[in-house]
Amino acid sequence: MTRIGRLKRRAEFLAAAAANRKWVAPGLVLQAHARDVAREVTGGAAAATTAHSTMTQPDLRLGFTASRKVGNAVLRNRAKRRLRAAATETLREILDGQAVTAAADLVLIARPATINRDYRSLKQDFRRGLSKLGVIAAAAGTPR
User: Which of 34, 41, 112, 128 has a CA that sits 20 to 30 A from residue 104's CA?
Assistant: First the structure.
């Protein structure tokens, strides 16, 4: 069973951006960063502050962001809510008891089209990005 967590710290968002693995779609930009959970647990500054075991580490961690290009605060929050809903619903459909290929951090960046894009298309953008970045198997990335 796959556990889903959240990205909260700026450093986590920057690590995903530094990985240079991204998928650009009309409704969103998806950045992926594969994590080495064993390294996080056994050593490093992050492990010293978190002190979690591999059993408590989520397999996927999601982060959502929207720049001022998207619009004012109301529009940015709406875009992030839409991305959050599309991501959680899509991951529930895809995973459904399956495990992801590797532990990963995913950052979904809203674009100006996120607000007015059809919800089904937004979910398809996310699903396609997951399969293109190798977070899920290609067969699981096809819509049902």
Answer: 112
